[in-house]
């Protein structure tokens, strides 16, 4: 019999046992990387004037840097879907992270516009692999009682990275902001080195299916072989089901609806980033740059951070990421956020405007964090990678890419900033409808959510 101090950590569907401490270590590392990757967007948002002046960029050329980044993300999403089940997960993700770091160094060493365009395209292509894979990793490897916390932490790190980017700009100033890119990339490379030395079985779902690993608290390892014939039968069944399950993704109504909602949400959020400062300066006639900066930071950054945490708390209250109440909860949060958004341009006070917009972002972010896990609940676990790649592809097509151009179109068409916000909130109501329809469809069809198998933690006392 085992001693009372020995604890086994088992992923039953993976057929091997993992060390919980290493799971926590990887969780910490990917959260750091997820946050660090988002430092550069925070820096870029803070020093638009300095970058345009130093690199001699017009508004159109500066905007094209963001567009080409989004186009790179679009292509990366498509490639991710094709290669995720072919290439070793650890080396695929670590390789893309290293490529992204090298692209950030370009900002530090060159002022050539064409080189910047190429580097931003490659950066968007490489970084999207991380943004797609990290939530998938959490869904596959997180312990049952910590999966909500881990998923929320990964998403919150995104916002924290943006905040750090703002403060790096404030700390280094307009002349030394480039060192922020260097600090970000150098820190990520150190983390990647640690990730590389961690065994493959902590990254790849199907790693060594013919072995069972037992890891105890004394780090002793026992390996037992399984009959290859049993494994071949399992693998053949999986291959036969793969084509059917792929069709299920495309025809999965709840998955398509929640993906459209997430694209809707991203479209509005990107457009608001352009609209916010423009509205303060041209409609509310606020010319103080410090007031604009802090209003933007409280609304877009701090409220988003609090909203992500609030969404994580709600997930726990409604019964976890696989709760049947996820869609209706998201719909309600989205509806009330849209209400605050409708009222925000009516006021002529910067203070009240900031409060209303902060409430909008807070509730919208809470709904967004729930939607990430809810997406995984409506698809088979073995197709998480492909489905998340398809999601990213759609979101880039209907969210990131068209938002800047749509904002410019409506600004020229409508003129007044308040009318633009009203149009965006009407589009936000479309997102509410998508969520409510998805909830209604699942109840009518009595669709059961896919429930993943978690680690089991067993402690056997000596008899």
Question: Topology of this structure?
Answer:
Layout lengths: L6 E5 L4 E2 L2 H18 L1 H8 L1 H7 L4 H25 L5 H21 L3 H29 L5 H26 L6 H18 L14 E5 L5 E5 L2 H23 L2 H30 L6 H29 L8 H18 L6 H28 L6 H17 L1 H13 L2 H29 L9 E5 L4
Antiparallel strand pairs: 1-2, 1-5, 3-4
Structure description:
By secondary structure, the protein is mainly α. The protein has 2 domains: 1-229, Growth Hormone, Chain: A, CATH 1.20.1250; 241-452, Growth Hormone, Chain: A, CATH 1.20.1250. The protein is 73% helix and 5% strand. The protein is built from 16 helices and 5 strands. It has helices at residues 20-37, 39-46, 48-54, 59-83, 89-109, 113-141, 147-172, 179-196, 228-250, 253-282, 289-317, 326-343, 350-377, 384-400, 402-414, 417-445; strands spanning 7-11, 16-17, 211-215, 221-225, 455-459. Strands 2-1-5 form a 3-stranded antiparallel sheet, with no helix packed on it. The chain has a two-stranded antiparallel sheet with strand order 3-4. A hairpin with a 5-residue loop joins strand 3 and strand 4. Helix 5 (89-109) packs antiparallel against helix 6 (113-141) and helix 10 crosses helix 15 (402-414). The N and C termini lie close together (7 Å). Mean pLDDT is 76; it is low at 1-16, 207-240 and 451-463.
Q: Could you give a short description of this structure?
A:
With 463 residues, this protein is mainly alpha-helical. It contains 16 helices and five strands.
């Amino acid at each position: 019999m085992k001693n009372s101090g020995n604890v086994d950590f088992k992923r039953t569907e993976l057929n091997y046992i993992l060390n919980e401490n290493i799971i926590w270590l990887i969780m910490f590392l990917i959260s750091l990387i997820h946050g660090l990757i988002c430092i550069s967007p925070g820096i870029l948002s803070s020093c638009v004037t300095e970058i345009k002046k130093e690199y001699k960029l017009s508004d159109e050329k500066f905007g094209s840097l963001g567009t080409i980044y989004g186009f790179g993300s679009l292509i990366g999403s498509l490639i991710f879907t094709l290669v995720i089940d072919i290439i070793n997960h650890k080396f695929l993700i670590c390789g893309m992270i290293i490529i992204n770091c090298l692209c950030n160094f370009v900002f530090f060493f060159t002022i050539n516009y064409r080189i910047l365009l190429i580097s931003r395209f490659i950066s968007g292509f490489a970084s999207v692999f991380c943004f797609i894979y990290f939530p998938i990793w959490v869904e596959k490897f997180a312990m049952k009682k910590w999966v909500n916390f881990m998923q929320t932490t990964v998403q919150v790190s995104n916002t924290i990275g943006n905040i750090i980017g703002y403060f790096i700009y404030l700390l280094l100033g307009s002349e030394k902001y480039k060192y922020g890119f260097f600090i970000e990339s150098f820190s990520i490379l150190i983390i990647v080195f640690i990730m590389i030395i961690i065994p493959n079985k902590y990254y790849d779902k199907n790693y060594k299916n013919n072995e069972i690993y037992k890891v105890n608290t004394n780090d002793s390892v026992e390996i037992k072989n399984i009959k290859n014939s049993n494994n071949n039968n399992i693998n053949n069944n999986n291959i036969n089901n793969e084509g059917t399950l792929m069709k299920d993704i495309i025809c999965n109504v709840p998955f398509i609806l929640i993906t459209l909602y997430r694209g809707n949400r991203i479209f509005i959020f990107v457009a608001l980033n352009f609209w916010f400062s423009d509205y303060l300066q041209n409609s509310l006639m606020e010319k103080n740059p410090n007031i604009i900066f802090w209003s933007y930071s409280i609304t877009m950054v701090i409220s988003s951070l609090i909203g992500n945490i609030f969404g994580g708390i709600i997930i726990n209250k409604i019964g976890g990421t696989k709760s049947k109440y996820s869609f209706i909860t998201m719909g309600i949060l989205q509806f009330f956020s849209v209400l605050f958004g409708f009222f925000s341009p009516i006021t002529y006070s910067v203070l009240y405007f900031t409060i209303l917009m902060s409430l909008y972002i807070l509730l919208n972010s809470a709904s967004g964090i729930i939607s990430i896990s809810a997406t995984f609940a409506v698809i088979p676990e073995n197709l998480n990678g492909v489905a998340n790649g398809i999601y990213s592809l759609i979101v880039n097509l209907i969210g990131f890419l068209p938002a800047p151009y749509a904002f410019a179109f409506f600004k020229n068409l409508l003129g007044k900033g308040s009318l633009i916000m009203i149009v965006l909130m009407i589009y936000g109501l479309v997102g509410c409808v998508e969520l409510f329809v998805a909830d209604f469809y699942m109840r009518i069809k009595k669709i059961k959510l896919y429930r993943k198998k978690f680690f089991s933690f067993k402690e056997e006392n000596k008899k």
